[in-house]
Amino acid sequence: MTKSNDSRPAPLLSAACVLAGGLLAATATAAPSIYPTGTTRYDPVKAFNSFILFTGGDNIAHLIDMNGNSVHEWKDAASHSTLIDPAVNGGKLGHVFVTLETTEGKGTGLVPGQINRRIAKTVGELDWDGNTVWSFGDKAPGGAAQQHHDWARLPNGNTAVLANWVHAVKGFKQKEVLDDVIYEVNPAGEVVWKWIASEHLNEFGFTPAELKLVKNAPIADYLHVNNLKVVGPNRWFAAGDKRFAPDNLLFDSRNANFIAIIDRQSGKIVWRLGPHYAEATIEGQLPRKTPRPVDQISAQHDAHIIPEGLPGAGNLLVFDNQGIAGYPPAAVPRTGGSRVLEIDPVKNEIVWQYSGESSGGPAWSFRSTHISAARRLPNGNTFIDEGQSGRLFQVTPDGDIVWEYVNPYGKVGEDALTGKDTANFQLYRGQPVPYAWVPAGTAHSEKAVAPPELARYQIQATL
Q1: Is 9 left (phi over 0), alpha (psi -120 to 50) or beta?
Q2: What is the pLDDT of residues 186-201, one digit of tens each?
């Protein structure tokens, strides 16, 4: 048995943990190659207890409890899934958005300079039993939804779908761009309203020099919008600020480093954060004092207005990846990590943030330069998806980690360049799901999980 320096026996990882966590995990470049998966810590008293939904590398939408037990699954969910709030879905419980069918695209007719890209042909809504109750695709422009990243059920019963459209845009270097569009789709699967990003380039806040960089982007996916949310009821609109009308739509552009609100009546941008921010970069770190003006956000994800009834309601919550993005690329700390920011959208001030330092580690101990998400919880905690590493966790306002889960459902395959077996445990998005959103009686566990002392958490040597 391996022992630590204090000569006490070291706890042994179970064979299941070793196999699940270590399966081809040597492909990780900045993390241990062997690590436990599933729930690794859990304080049921301090955590907000709920279900959690995510789609793993196995393309299954997993609904788990806080102890990591799978309580329900929807198969063939493609890369991501979203459980629909019953409040905007006629009270229906346990319904999810998923990709129903994909199709293979080839050559520059689909995406300039990119081949073998699978696109969403049909997306839809499944009930608790997996039956399709709504779909969109055959009536989409071109006969394919081309939905990506996000979707949202609207209060009027229609559905907002974030999609791509490959077409020529005058003045762009690329012969065709991978444009971002938003469709409002009725229950019959018909488009009743649409918004096209390239028609609003002059509303995104670019200087003439920056706009020139945008139009000469070396890739077709010049904006890469990765998020779409309904603004929802909020205190700003209640006080008379029409920019935050509940029916308006909020999105963010990963590649261009801005977040914006679309007026549903005019289609114009009525509120925007970025692409210019207060100078804040310090060698190797970013400031932590709050409140302060919003400093450099880069490659962000999952921006949304915190819903009414939750702590911080009306503020903007966003996962600031601190990845490379922008026109020109933003200056981000070389050894820094990611951040979750809560922002007053009227004062444009950061009023709360989470970073690696918040939990007692270095900045880079919390880092996901792509994908990821964050949501505010009813008890004031914040749910975080550190997507790059496949880690879901929950922190208190002071940064204490009170629940943590590591994705055991990796995507295994062969690298086309090296021929080596590879595994990827990343999670595009995790979603906390209140117990009341699924059928009554759905079993769940709330047993405390105490993390071991890492210095003594070792694996027994083979004989």
Answers
A1: beta
A2: 999 999 999 999 999 9
